[in-house]
Amino acid sequence: MLLLSSCNHLSKDLPGRGAEDLWGERIRLNREINSGDPVVIVPFSTSNCGYCMIDGYFTENNYIGNNEQFGGWSYHMSLFNPQLDIYAFQKHFGWHTPILTYPPSLHEYHQNGFPTLLAFKAGEQVLQDFYNYSKFDTLKSFLWDSTARFHPTGEMHMATRLIYENGSMEAVYVVPGGSIIDEEEKAFAEKYKAYSFSSFDTLSEDNKKKHLFIRSGSDLTELMELFKGHEIPLNMDEHSFGMGEYRFPTDTVAFYGCFPNPFNPEKYVVLIISGGYSKLFWPANYLDYIVFSGDRPAQGKRLLYGHFDKDDPAGWHFSGDRSFSDVPREAFCVKRCEAPEPKGLTSSATPDIETSYRPLEEGAIWSLGNGACRFPEIAAGLDGSCWVTWEEDGNILLGNVNSAGDVKTWYAEYNESNSYNPKLVVDGDEVWLFYLNNQDNYYRLYTKSFKGGRFSDEILLTPKDPFDVVTPDVVIGANGEMTIAWCEWLANQRFLKFRSMKNGISGNIHQVLVAPRIYTKDYTNAWWPSLVNYGDEVWGAWNQHYPATCGVCGGALADTAVTITQPSESEDDWEQGGYPDIFTDGEELFVVWESSGWDVLNNHGLQQIKIARFDSITGRWTPGRILTIDPITTLNQTPDGACDTQENKYIVWSGRNHISGKPWGIYLARELDGVWSDPVLISEKDETARHPKIIVDSSDNIWISWHSGIGNEMKVEIVRLPTQ
């Protein structure tokens, strides 16, 4: 059912401080729902699996874009993901609307946890349904009016979902005349009500206006006739096709791509020109198109691939600065093909950075930044100082608090491009910064060093390919060799990669050997790596599914990983959790993580912080020991750990009690002589504080950082405490 037979009412006030966005700003959701204007909320799941992740371009351009055009209120919603993980979604998809992150009770309006579209009108919930893309036509007339338009958005992942998962025979599988339809294809189409079948010469005018899944051989005559007089991103003759200034013969080259249907720009065309090829080049679902040679992906070459220019939603065009090739592309150029000019970036203004200091009963606290300060990271200097980096309104800043408490600050990256998620390590008297930056339509990982008051030139660490990089981490060894890990986001799959760097020279890129998949084939989704040096190796821990829906896996990067959260015979019974930090006391190895946020929904349960130790004899991780205490905090996220020279362990995390409505705060627990203390709130009471990081310097001083405040008032806080 699209419309609910009995509607939910959001008549009572939301608990505590009411609804909140990602940065803690209060949202008067009750008022908006009761205003009479349509309210559209698009939740996404904490498990972040490929089939649960919403295609953000599709969401923004269609459900949210149309809702705002017709005067409605629009939100994304993620109730349990950590701030930085949600922020990565926002950057990746280009979301501009607020994201609801609180309270957990909002979950009652989308019970299943999968991508769901929620809609309210005149104070009543009128939609609570599985996020089936084909229902846009029904929804537009109900929430807005019939003039609302669907805009195909790419990538191939979204286009193929609408071919295979429309559920109402809204697609047509088109083949050359005389072709024999595979019986498995017929069975699939009938079972899932996905598509009918047609040849080019029997394709009706009505069917032309549906989603078209077209297969062509090396002779493009029928394809040319079909699109005659219509503009598509390809140009063709009988035995070749082209894009821009590039042209390819169909007897040795294949094409796989998607674009709007010229007969009905609210539908997709998915086109395969395969000649004699039996298999597609994979993975390709994160692209709009790929031109390739070679019958098998292992032997094939990507001749041209990337994303189209979509400034005109109904007519996509080839874009030189969004195109890539693994071979010299000049061989396929029929005219003069020039590489895109590097984009000149204008520097941003650099106002003075505010700093303040106040003593504590034990230790001291510093506040840095002018506002909108996010996700600080810290590292210990050799002289008893603390280095800190953070994002401030899309720029990357660097600061130092020396042993005497003096503060210095610098702008590290401050041009018109947008940066976030900085990391840093200290190598003697040199500091290395790492950050994600969008200079050429995609977020990539860059680094630069700081020494003697000067920053080096920027170094690109990740490939120049049409995908975003997210959630990096870095660790430095005693010999000065750094290991950098990151996640490459390819539509519904995410892959972990790593490389080394020493003296500014980068090594080869390697794939992290994630834990073996048990319940799926040819599917990888791993992200949020944490790194540590342990013995002579670099170890890591990260989020991964499967085997668990969302679990923690890890191991030495040179070896195949194992599960850290506890296994089970059944996928649904595996322990769930994520967002780990891995650290060592020099002798033993530990991982700390958060349990699933969904736990708070079960009889007002508790999201827990857990710590496990690696047993080198069995090669397994011990069951996680719980550090949180009920009822102090019910939501607990993003733990971080460190050890002092006496092998005592310290864990910090961000927690809040959603029942009492208290804001997020920073909590510290310590293990001394094998006994864990109760958690202690170390941030200001009743002030929002999140994303803690902890280090211990060579003098056994504890340094802890976080960002505090809400919205554009957020600052960086750094606390120094004596270990005793």
Oligomer: single chain
User: Tally of extended strands?
Assistant: 51
- Shape, please? globular
Quote the average pLDDT.
90
Topology:
Elements: E1 19-20, E2 26-27, H1 29-33, E3 39-43, H2 56-69, E4 73-77, H3 83-93, E5 99-100, E6 116-121, E7 124-130, H4 136-143, H5 156-164, E8 171-175, H6 183-192, E9 195-199, H7 205-208, E10 211-216, H8 221-226, E11 235-237, E12 240-243, E13 246-249, E14 254-261, E15 264-273, E16 289-293, E17 301-306, E18 323-324, E19 355-359, E20 364-368, E21 373-380, E22 386-392, E23 395-401, E24 407-413, E25 418-427, E26 430-438, E27 443-451, E28 454-455, E29 459-460, E30 468-476, E31 482-490, E32 493-502, E33 505-506, E34 510-511, E35 525-534, E36 537-545, E37 551-556, E38 562-563, E39 577-584, E40 589-595, E41 609-615, E42 620-621, E43 625-626, E44 635-643, E45 649-656, E46 665-672, E47 675-676, E48 680-681, E49 689-696, E50 701-708, E51 715-722
Parallel strand pairs: 3-4, 4-5, 8-9, 8-10, 10-15
Antiparallel strand pairs: 1-2, 3-6, 6-7, 11-12, 12-13, 14-15, 14-16, 16-17, 17-18, 19-20, 20-51, 21-22, 22-23, 23-24, 25-26, 26-27, 27-28, 27-29, 30-31, 31-32, 32-33, 32-34, 35-36, 36-37, 37-38, 39-40, 40-41, 41-42, 41-43, 44-45, 45-46, 46-47, 46-48, 49-50, 50-51
